[in-house]
Structures
1.
Amino acid sequence: MSYEEGAAVAAGAADVIIRGQSLGKCYHIYDRPSHRLLQGLWGGKRRFYREFWALRGVDLTVRRGETLGIIGRNGSGKSTLLQMIAGTLAPTEGVIQVEGRVAALLELGSGFNPEFTGRENVYLNAAILGLSTADVDRRIERILAFADIGAFIDQPIRSYSSGMVMRLAFSVMAHVDADVLIIDEALAVGDAFFTQKCMRFLREFKERGTLLFVSHDDAAVSALCDSALWLDDGVVRAYGEAKGVVHKYLESVISARQDGAMRTTEAETPGAPRTRQRPLYDARRDWINASNLRNDVEVIPFDPAVPGFGELRARMTDVSLTDAAGNPLSWVVGGESVVLEVSIVSDDVIRRPIVGFYLKDRLGQQLFGDNTYLTTFGNERPMQPGRPMRARFEFEMPRLRSGDYFVTIGIADGDKEDHVIQHWIHEALTLRSDCVEWAAGLIGLPMTGIHLEEVK
Ligand SMILES: Nc1ncnc2c1ncn2[C@@H]1O[C@H](COP(=O)(O)OP(=O)(O)OP(=O)(O)O)[C@@H](O)[C@H]1O
């Protein structure tokens, strides 16, 4: 879909909440400080500055309930556009109309007064967003619980770390009943557990509100957003369905990296000879593991005190990654065979136990997972009180981009359609990956063989 088509399709839809027409922002650039002074003296009679358009000719229409991703290189105009939508920056030309309450997390602590305490800033910030003191009184406990910064809340903000400022700012924003949320995902980097909490909140918010999400992470935009807008040097390069726009953006990034030496391939000719697939040992594995391509993954051990939920007639007592011999691992190398073990106890009969897991990245995207349902299908054994069980999932550890990952585990009683969650832990294990080089995709599947050869 072209930019014009994207804007036209969106504009035709009912329930428009944001409409921007021909938006532009021009800054005056003075090559020397003295030029600014001279400009003041000369007024409009002479020009001592250069014009720089940070944004120009942007049309945009966002419907209620839509999630729009804004992508683009550094300096492409993303913040400029979003500040206009948030109402903190006036456009030089064009018109922006926004319905309802907008809460934005664009610049860290921008709405906070450093001399006031966290608590005072909560009231101040919420008031700016239109909440009365009584409204905040009713929500303050929830705001503080979400931010989770403890006694610091009664200290001046200037004594906070940037992570604490982020937690508080996000928490206020999450509790003001905003119609539109604007988030720069780069700000949410840092504390991985809090990022998970934020992402869970954003997924829930998406169901009822309008979300504008700035991200450098193309996978996150594809996964979270309905539509995307790609800005490049202040102008829109593509606008429309998220996956299509992200695809074009990536194509351009890769093409630029390869100095434009890229062509699009045609579909394979029918009947052309194909390489036969046979399971082969990947001889590169030893080489990869001995080089800087090696992907080390630290396993942060299971903490039995970590919060979970469920009926709790059965619960997990331990979760670990082990080698084939059952030895718990504190480090794994991407590509190695591992076993995910979940130990369970119950104090009641669990008629049909099912144990499942998935691996999530820091944005909460589910990368892969599985469960015991099909393995036990037709041969279900009730779990008896006082007789512990253990679920084992054997797989090859995929290579993981640098960052934190989480293993979510669920235990249920029932079948695939109809079951009751017994115990669910969002972050049962944390995997901390360190990876210097990255090939492609969300995860790197260990290849059993890669070949390039002449077909005889
Ligand atoms: N006050 C200003 N005066 C002059 N130029 C500015 C000003 N604010 C922003 N710019 C310029 O406008 C351009 C767009 O900036 P903007 O912050 O919107 O980009 P961005 O896409 O959000 O970048 P990033 O991803 O690095 O946050 C940049 O070239 C920036 O240097």
2.
Amino acid sequence: MTTPAAPQDDSGVLLSVRNLSLRFGGVLAVNDVSFDVRSGEVFTLIGPNGAGKTTLFNLISRIYRPSTGSIAYAGPDGAMLQLTRQQPHMVAGLGIARTFQNIELFEHASVLHNLLIGRHRCRETGLWADLLFTRRVRAAEMRAREKVEQVIDFLDLQHCRDQLVAGLPYGVRKVVELARALCTEPRLLLLDEPSSGLNVEETDDMAFWIQDIQQALGITVLMVEHDMALVSRVSDRVLAMNHGQVLAMGSPREVQSHPGVIEAYLGRADTASDTSGPLRRPPASPGARTSA
Ligand SMILES: Nc1ncnc2c1ncn2[C@@H]1O[C@H](COP(=O)(O)OP(=O)(O)OP(=O)(O)O)[C@@H](O)[C@H]1O
């Protein structure tokens, strides 16, 4: 018996989200959201606190299962597959890597070891081969080391490669987390608030790395970000959310000047005469949960 071939993607779309919703009890955190992320672009989710950005992000990285809707992803062979049908641990194997708003690294391991652990998902050998340390295992280990060294060079981490993560400044740890994600050789990189906790200079460096990852490595980036200066600088397209729904989608300039977006951030569209400047992150509304 032959199985029908999976539909092939020929539109340059890497990720296609359709009518996605997730309800937490009485809260509709994500409400009928649809959008496409094109191969090679930087696509950014913005919105005030509690808008549903992190929930949407966690749906795409399969931490949550949607109440309704679908997420299709162009797999390594080009066939569109349903992410919602994949086990969460299989997502990394499909070429999707993510960073977290609150850095998730092994604090008492060196930078090098953290990156080698990050590389683990690319393991091509089985348990017995590993135990016997066969020639294939040795070759795979060499490839892992080469990839890790390339990423260390790419992100200028030579100066701290043998240091414990626990002793590193916060800004460097953020770059190490980015490095760990890159070691898995992703096709889609999910960045959860890459600038959170960074000072102006470090945010500037982060913008540079994101542009370099897109342009030099050709990796598609989907990020959640509050810093509108960073968003404007690196994003090809922006999707603004509020109350779980899509408010606007387009270029950074189009979205920043959209009346609904200004109103969501500032309260009333007609109070915001200057739409050229960055939208500021508003104070958290009472009862709003901070992002996961
Ligand atoms: N695990 C959860 N259980 C119950 N409610 C949740 C949960 N996670 C999120 N929510 C609710 O869903 C809504 C969307 O939250 P979410 O964290 O996705 O917003 P956000 O846009 O990421 O906000 P922020 O910018 O503050 O991180 C909020 O009303 C929030 O309180």
